[in-house]
Amino acid sequence: MDYKNAGVDIEAGYQAVSFMKEHIASTMRPEVLTDIGGFSGAFSMKSFQNMEEPTLVSGTDGVGTKLKIAFLMDQHDTIGIDCVAMCVNDIACAGGDPLFFLDYIACGKNEPKKIAKIVSGVAEGCRQAGAALIGGETAEMPGFYPVDEYDLAGFSVGIVDKKDMITGKDLKEKDVLIGMASSGIHSNGYSLVRKVFRMSEEALQTYYESLGQTLGETLLTPTKIYVKALQSIKKAGVTIKACSHVTGGGFYENIPRMLNDHTHAYVEKNSFQRPIIFDMLSKDGDVAEDMMYNTYNMGIGMVVAVDPLQVDPCMKAIQDAGETPYVIGEIRAGEKGITLS
Questions:
Q1: Contact (CB, 8 A) for 140 and 40
Q2: For residues 113 and 20, is the Cβ–Cβ distance under 8 A?
């Protein structure tokens, strides 16, 4: 009896690392001090010494049951983008620039080419965010996970000068809410998605004219990474007073998180384009509209609040970064919360 007979193939692990290396190399930044394969990743802070008070911000998250769609579609090269997005978007909400990322993959069986595909998506997400992929872990856990399934999670660290942190403390009445378009469902609410739509290869491969692609392709569309858009706003000289990454809990949970205790957000539901997939979910699943806005991003993945005089330059900065902005509402005095109309 040996470890391989017990279900853990150490040689497959070595092979997976070999396949990953070219993807990882494409994410490197000059501050990275270590190579893949060591016990830890090192990152120099020397280039940030000019900040008045350099402050680290961090984020960690996974992909959730969206992974089930990847399993059924046998498509594993984009799910890593979702993992990175869920972490770095949270960092960007605080005003931070992501520096580096680490991933964790737990699987029932280490299939090196599949693992490399997952990591290729992680690397793509890191490139989009400007973060270095400096390490990770692939854990082969036979008997714990089915042989053809895996879990994926990540952790990222970013930096911001404390004076530039986005806290919402200066938010006030008449400030304007600007939303950035999502790419679809992103990475939240997939337990409900899997209840509404039939989870079979045939159903996922069905082409819908209204979607312009198959249902499976729509459901696997990667989460938008908004780091460059928020950096573009900052470079344009616009002050982001408050920011919200619209994830699980939708509008009702996430937008109030950007407010201070004396402000209330008013959002107009017809002020932005809602992707067709949300209409399909609502109709096919008989999901009430309030529940949809309490579960999904509904077409808005990131929200910023700015002074009314800075709306135009903010909108242009978002467009310059390749994203689509909408003026979706405003801030009024009142109890912390949100009203949708």
A1: no
A2: no
What is the residue type of 173?
E
pTM of the model: 0.94
Tens of each residue's pLDDT in the chain, 341 residues: 655 655 666 676 667 777 778 888 899 999 998 887 778 889 999 999 999 999 999 999 999 999 999 999 999 999 999 999 999 999 999 999 999 999 999 999 999 999 999 999 999 999 999 999 999 999 999 999 999 999 999 999 999 999 999 999 999 999 999 999 999 999 999 999 999 999 999 999 999 999 999 999 999 999 999 999 999 999 999 999 999 999 999 999 999 999 999 999 999 999 999 999 999 999 999 999 999 999 999 999 999 999 999 999 999 999 999 999 999 999 999 999 999 99
Alpha helices in 76-170 (DSSP H): 79-93, 112-129
277: amino acid identity, one letter: I
Angle subtended by helix axes 227-235 and 79-93, to nearest 10: 30
What residue spans of 220-301 are helical by DSSP H? 227-235, 250-254, 276-285, 289-293
Q: Kindly state the tokens that stand for 227.
A: 């780091």
Count Cβ atoms below 10 Å from residue 116 Cβ, excluding itself: 21
Helix (H, G, I), strand (E, B) or coil at 177: strand
